[in-house]
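Project outcomes to date are best conveyed with an example. Our students and postdoctoral researchers have been running inverse folding experiments weekly, and each run begins with a structure described purely in tokens. The record below, which covers 849 residues, was selected by the lab manager from last quarter's runs and is presented without edits.
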């Protein structure tokens, strides 16, 4: 039974709302067994002191407890969700607690410990609250009280727990959890450090006095002490092999508030010998422990690369498709339609025309000087290409011809002159790009594909390699050059399809047709894709060309665009047949100009000066070709130079500067001879180009034979000693290097060998007329032949030596021995012949400069 404290000289008091009214109601009748009294005497509310700091009494970190005194801890007094306010810089620590108290005032929230004690006590009681110490970080408060010596403190705890369980007091900011109370059994450490509660507690076992020995409690004992404060998820003792002192254990609670209650009630508790604490007793020291690391998200991501890396790759791919693909398609369309090219603007063209008319009396021709003669000669080819573009046949158009024959000008400037939507893709810039990033950027630049993140490919490759080394499985985060190029071509195909369908209207006669049917029925609506320099240096690898051919095949078979290939190599059909094996290609072969057309080209180039009108005399001036008296030499000069457009243009420019045709052709031939020496004969072994597959002796043998004859038999060249081993690869490499051109015969087989350019024929003759050069290179050829024959002699002698070691000489070996002796004699005769010729050549080199 609780009795009043008036006999102890203490005035009774009533704890009311903010302690403003007198009287203290008694405990519930179920606790005391007495009838409830409406009012009790009490002392003034100012007798209860509210501490404003969280550092304990006198900032000592502890709460002193005397005889007949006790401490209660109430939780759910303040909100734990507002703890982030306490993490602000230190200069605000004096203001934040006050703000936090106003936001979650216990009187407003209905969780004031004094009100709880008042309502729980409905009659005279022998407890007296002397101090309330709030704990903002832990969301609770300590209440220090005194009680009569005849009433144990456990009765107060039991009465308050029963009341809180029946009334279910819940603050407004946490309507799902009720307030709880617990009697502080130990000596709580009241600190204001920047440490915040967690569901995990670290329990350290300390001796009760210096020199004494602490006892490590078992899991069963810890469970008995701490289970009343809340459900435990795990108890983790210290590892047996751990040398860390003092000994400790971890307690994991299901909720943070349960850990707060246990920590504040049991910190500093002395476990007696009867409870398993040893003879001297063991003190429990509790502290919050971070159960989850601060960077647990980062650690989880790093610790699960097999899940994270593919997920990141999928996320990046999804973002790229959702965000960047429409942007890239827009830029490709703008590149093809030339939407942002102000040169195509009508207003700009009008101003340019007006300015041109003011500055000049006659408008300059749009084409290069002299090209009219070429286009007149190739008018049939131009019309043929335009006709093919109007047909619905889904096949390739191939324009094949040697370099400098004007393929690109014929197709782009003439056949597609009035085509609005066309795109030119230069395979040379893509194939010769150094590195994967440069190759991707080059391909993107050809079609206007942007933005391009080529550097991501290198970084993702390193990430993929590192992840594969860590996990043992390829994550697929990086992409190959083929996949990157495939994205560029696919985006371009999407843009081309949208351009082809832009002209459709609801009022059209064929508006009922589907998109594929519409594209098939209207070939004139399809854009044109021109692929220039196809199979450029194809001996270096054809991965890029194969991908372009496959993409072009999809464009044609889907009726998205017309595709025109411009190829220098005659072996284009082998690569294109892989992409369209069931189609017959439309092919136009361009050759060098005839002598008549070449002469007309040079003369037209000379007469391209527009200022031929004499304003003073009112008559036309003589053209440059009419004023020249040396143009009679053009017939013989063009016969030597040939009909290659680049060489003819070079000749016309030299003649225009004042040189005679004979001198101009002579200088062109000499320049070509110098190029042949540098590119094919000298410096081959020391060259940085490691792709050369011929030696100077093989190139010189062809030069010398072509100087004597304009055409060589293909198989005859392969029979020579210099071309016995790998001769066909050498000839193909020389053809790619443009020293020679291989002419196909019946059934497409190689039949003849000609100079790579017409101007090379006189250049070859000029080189062979140099006695010193010819002697030097012939000597090198003879040295190579002598080396070959000496090797043959060594093989014959070795076989004869092997046969001579037999004990018996069968009659069947006689023909073999005779054959070896004959071959040995022939090789020896050749060596002697070559040695004799070498001696004569050495004599020339010793006498001539």
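After processing, the design step wrote out the following sequence:
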């Amino acid at each position: 039974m609780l009795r009043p404290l008036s006999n102890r000289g203490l005035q009774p008091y009533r704890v009311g709302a903010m302690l403003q009214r007198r009287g203290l109601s008694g405990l519930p009748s179920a606790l005391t067994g007495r009838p409830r009294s409406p009012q009790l005497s009490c002392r003034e509310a100012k007798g209860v002191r509210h501490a404003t700091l969280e550092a304990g009494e006198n900032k000592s970190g502890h709460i002193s407890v005397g005889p007949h005194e006790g401490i209660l801890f109430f939780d759910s007094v303040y909100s734990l969700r507002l703890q982030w306010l306490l993490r602000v810089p230190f200069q605000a620590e004096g203001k934040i607690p006050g703000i936090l108290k106003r936001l979650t005032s216990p009187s407003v929230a209905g969780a004031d410990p004094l009100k709880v004690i008042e309502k729980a006590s409905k009659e005279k009681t022998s407890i007296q609250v002397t101090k309330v110490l709030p704990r903002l970080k832990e969301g609770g408060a300590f209440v220090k009280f005194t009680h009569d010596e005849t009433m144990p403190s456990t009765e107060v705890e039991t009465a308050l727990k029963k009341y809180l369980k029946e009334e279910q007091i819940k603050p407004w900011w946490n309507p799902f959890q009720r307030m709880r109370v617990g009697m502080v059994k130990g000596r709580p450490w009241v600190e204001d450090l920047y440490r915040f509660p967690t569901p995990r507690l670290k329990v350290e076992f300390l001796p009760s006095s210096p020199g004494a020995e602490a006892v490590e409690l078992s899991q069963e004992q810890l469970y008995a002490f701490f289970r009343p404060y809340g459900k435990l998820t795990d108890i983790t003792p210290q590892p047996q092999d751990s040398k860390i002192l003092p000994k400790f254990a971890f307690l994991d609670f299901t909720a943070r508030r349960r850990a707060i209650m246990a920590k504040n009630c049991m910190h500093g508790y002395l476990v007696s010998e009867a409870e398993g604490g040893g003879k001297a007793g063991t003190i429990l020291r509790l502290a919050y422990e971070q159960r989850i690391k601060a960077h647990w998200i980062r650690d989880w991501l790093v610790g699960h690369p097999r899940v994270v890396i593919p997920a990141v790759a999928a996320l990046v791919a999804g973002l790229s498709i959702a965000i960047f693909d429409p942007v890239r398609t827009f830029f490709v369309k703008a590149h093809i339609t030339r939407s942002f090219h102000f040169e195509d603007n009508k207003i700009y063209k009008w101003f340019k025309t007006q300015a041109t008319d003011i500055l000049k009396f006659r408008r300059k021709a749009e084409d290069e000087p002299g090209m009219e003669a070429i286009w007149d000669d190739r008018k049939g080819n131009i019309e043929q290409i335009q006709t093919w573009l109007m047909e619905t046949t889904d096949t390739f158009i191939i324009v094949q011809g040697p370099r400098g024959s004007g393929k690109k000008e014929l197709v782009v400037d003439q056949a597609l002159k009035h085509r609005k939507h066309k795109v030119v893709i230069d395979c040379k810039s893509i194939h010769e790009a150094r590195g994967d990033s440069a190759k991707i950027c080059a391909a993107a630049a050809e079609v206007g594909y942007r933005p391009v993140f080529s550097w991501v490919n290198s970084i993702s490759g390193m990430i993929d390699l590192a992840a594969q080394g860590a996990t043992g499985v390829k994550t697929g985060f990086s992409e190959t050059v083929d996949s990157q190029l495939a994205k560029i071509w696919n985006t371009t195909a999407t843009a081309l399809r949208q351009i082809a369908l832009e002209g459709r209207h609801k009022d059209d006669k064929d508006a009922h047709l589907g998109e594929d049917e519409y594209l098939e029925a209207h070939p004139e609506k399809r854009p044109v894709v021109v692929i220039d320099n196809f199979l450029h240096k194809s001996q270096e690898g054809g991965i890029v060309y194969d991908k372009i051919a496959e993409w072009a095949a999809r464009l044609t078979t889907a009726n998205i665009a017309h595709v025109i290939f411009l190829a220098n190599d005659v072996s284009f059909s082998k690569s294109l047949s892989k992409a369209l094996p069931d189609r017959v290609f439309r092919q136009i072969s361009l050759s060098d100009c005839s002598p008549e057309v070449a002469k007309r080209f040079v003369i037209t180039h000379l007469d391209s000066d527009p200022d031929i009108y004499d304003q003073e005399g009112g008559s036309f001036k003589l053209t440059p070709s009419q004023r020249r008296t040396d143009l009679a030499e053009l017939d013989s000069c063009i016969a030597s130079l040939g009909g290659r457009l680049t060489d003819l243009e070079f000749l016309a420019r030299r003649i225009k500067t004042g040189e005679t045709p004979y001198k101009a052709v002579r200088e062109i031939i000499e320049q070509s001879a110098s190029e042949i020496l540098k590119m094919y004969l000298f410096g081959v072994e020391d060259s940085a180009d490691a792709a050369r597959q011929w030696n100077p002796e093989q190139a010189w043998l062809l030069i010398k034979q072509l100087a004597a004859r304009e055409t060589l038999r293909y198989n005859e060249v392969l029979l020579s000693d210099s071309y016995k081993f790998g001769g066909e690869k050498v000839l193909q490499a020389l053809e790619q290097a443009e020293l020679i051109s291989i002419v196909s015969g019946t059934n497409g087989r190689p039949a003849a060998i000609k100079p790579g350019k017409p101007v090379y024929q006189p250049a070859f003759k000029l080189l062979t007329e140099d006695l010193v050069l010819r002697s030097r290179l012939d000597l090198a050829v003879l040295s190579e032949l002598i080396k070959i024959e000496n090797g043959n002699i060594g093989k014959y002698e070795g076989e004869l030596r092997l046969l001579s070691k037999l004990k018996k000489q069968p009659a069947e070996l006689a023909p073999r021995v005779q054959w070896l002796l004959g071959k040995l004699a022939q090789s020896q005769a050749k060596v002697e012949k070559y040695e004799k010729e070498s001696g004569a050549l050495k004599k020339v080199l010793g006498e001539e400069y």
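The CA atoms of residues 78 and 136 lie 6 Å apart. Residues 322-589 form one domain. The training component of this project remains on track.
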